[in-house]
Amino acid sequence: MAADQLSLLFAPRSLALVGVSSRPESLSGRLLGNLQRAGFPGKIFPINPKARDIGGLPCFPSLAAVGEVPDVSVIMVPREHALAAVEESLACGVRALVLITAGFREGGAEGAQLEAEIVRRVRQSGALMLGPNCMGLVNTDPQVRLDATFSPVPCRPGGVAFASHSGALGVAMFEQALEVGLGISLFVSLGNSSVVNAADALEYFAEDGRTRAVMLYLEAIEEPQRFLAAAQRVAAHKPVMVLKAGRSAAGQRAASSHTGALAAQDRAVDALLRQAGCVRADSLRELLDWARTAERVAPAAGARVAVLSNAGGPAIAACDALAAQGLELAHLAPATQQALRAFLPAEAAVGNPVDMLPSARPEDFRQALEVLAQDAGVDAVVVITVTPPLASPRQVAEALATAAVPKPYLPVFMTSPQFYQEALGIPDLPPVFRFPEEAVGALAAQRRAQERAVTIQAPKVAPFRPPTVPAREGILPPQEALALVAAAGIPVAPFAIARSPQELPEAADQVGFPLVLKAFGPTLVHKSELAAVVLNIRSREQLQQEAQQLLQRLAEQGCPVEGLLLQPFLTGGRELILGITRDPVVGPLVACGLGGVAVEVWQDVAFRPAPCSLEDAQAMLAELKGKALLGPFRGKPAVDTSAVAEAVVRLSALAAGVPELEECDLNPLLAFPQGVVAVDVRVRLQRR
């Protein structure tokens, strides 16, 4: 969407309020009141044929009667009049609309049909529209001062842009933001996202100089590829924090009924958000904590954290949280510990965590923080205060705020509730947390955002020339599946096919002993469960005997056999699984995880939308819980993870370049100290 069109929406010079009520307590009356309270400097044209003036402004019976074309038409009429109001706005030349009215596709088939017609008219005219079923938008820029919402709570100006599918949740977050001191630069209630969606909002947020971080509450992801590109553009320079509703099946159904949009599977959404460089929150509280930290605290240069406290228990809790969040407990230099000893009691612990004891004074907090921040091995500090007996929490907070600290720190005050509002008035004090785990979580979110910013700025996949695929549907025979994967540049084990036992000797000569014998056919998917695989065959005689027994076993189970596959018996490799699947919303996904027969039990698998970069693939390996199994293990050297990552990239390019490729499993992909080899490949094609 063109930037100048979005600027009309977010920074208009004039607004028409179509259907505004003369009752200040109504939603439309409240929207007018919010515009006036915020001090919107542009022109406001109330449109209501039943009133002469509203809110002290001249009222017009129609848009045509205004005599000039407003930048934005805010439509607040009942649903049955919405189409006419949209048509009138477009006929008058309005290029940006905000349709507050609800009751469209979120309300059933009739509403969906009406919404579709409105969208058709808007797109046909080349205009843009926010909503329907939305709360409006806010721009706290002093030059704009736009509050075109019916929120009962004003925004505190600041540096975080916020887009939300839910208007009600936006109001709730405004209230919470005021309570914790979070400032908003831009807010947009997306509603049904029928024209303007999250990708459009992100494109505008990327260009806004006042925005330092972005919050998103999403119930669906419209236009996933546009969203991916827009989010990457923002996340390269500003952290993008997302709460995506619908992790559970029940949540997906609720989100779908709310927005009328199709909810993607959560694993696909998670993969998309990771590749987009976003950090995903598990709760509204996390989203708020991360945003207020990103707004006011510079990100740490690394993952090494010092913990400073006047109580041992909370300090230990902070250490546990650091470990759980993937951060490190910093090792303090001897000079740092000596400097702490110079002014702390002899009984104080000056390792990490630093326990100053309950007798610590405000000056001790300030001085200890300054000492820790000077340590080259410390990237950030968490300062924990349990209500001190010799000073007030406010005195400690004021002392911390005056500290000369070149590195980020987050204060935790475990004290009475009224203190937190007091703390908002202390200049230069970072956001205050109630519990150590919250502060550590905010630091960890910043760290993840930094790491993903580096990943998304890395060079992307080179152009890929997709191989030719057979012109049919269904499961490919193994020789065609292996050939397809090999054509993508992924090493495959040598193989030979025997259509009958009589062809086995010649096939064995092509492969060599020792070898593996596998039967294949339309029902032979999980070969190990059907005993359709025989390992370590060392002679022709053994091969004939094992083949005869294998065919007999499968015949007794009613499993037809199309042929026999022979491959070298490879040892010493560690098993992984690589795969391709297609999500109906996000599109093709590539998977990488620990393989073998236990993959369905452990499900230690990472996903990314295809195609992905080498850096994406390396990040996928780092996400695996069992990643240590790929390193030196029980006297065996580490596997060639660079070759694994390269195979992931090539498989993802295959997924993106071959739309007929519905499913593909490399299970196992054997990883060795040098190189990888796919030994079992399953491919299913579906023509589109």
* Helical proportion, percent range: 25-40%
Low-confidence regions: 256-263
The CATH topology of the largest domain is given as: Rossmann fold
- Number of beta-strand segments: 30
CATH level 1 class label of the largest domain: Alpha Beta
Compose a concise summary of this entry:
The protein is α/β, with parallel strands linked by helices and 688 residues long. Strand 12, helix 7 (224-235) and strand 13 (240-244) form a beta-alpha-beta unit. It is flat and about 100 Å long.
List strands and helices in order, with pairings.
Layout: H1 3-10, E1 14-18, H2 27-38, E2 43-47, E3 53-54, E4 57-58, E5 72-75, H3 82-91, E6 96-99, H4 109-125, E7 128-130, E8 136-139, E9 146-149, E10 157-164, H5 167-180, E11 184-189, H6 198-207, E12 213-218, H7 224-235, E13 240-244, H8 249-259, H9 266-275, E14 279-280, H10 284-296, E15 304-309, H11 312-324, E16 328-329, H12 334-341, E17 354-355, H13 362-374, E18 380-386, H14 393-401, E19 409-414, H15 418-423, H16 436-456, E20 474-475, H17 478-487, E21 496-498, H18 504-511, E22 515-520, E23 533-537, H19 540-556, E24 563-568, E25 574-583, E26 587-594, H20 599-602, E27 605-609, H21 614-623, H22 641-657, E28 661-671, E29 676-678, E30 681-685
Parallel strand pairs: 1-2, 1-5, 5-6, 6-7, 10-11, 10-12, 12-13, 13-14, 15-16, 15-17, 15-18, 18-19
Antiparallel strand pairs: 3-4, 8-9, 8-11, 20-30, 21-24, 22-23, 22-24, 25-26, 25-28, 26-27, 28-29, 28-30
Helix pairs in contact: 3-4, 6-7, 10-16, 11-16, 13-14, 21-22
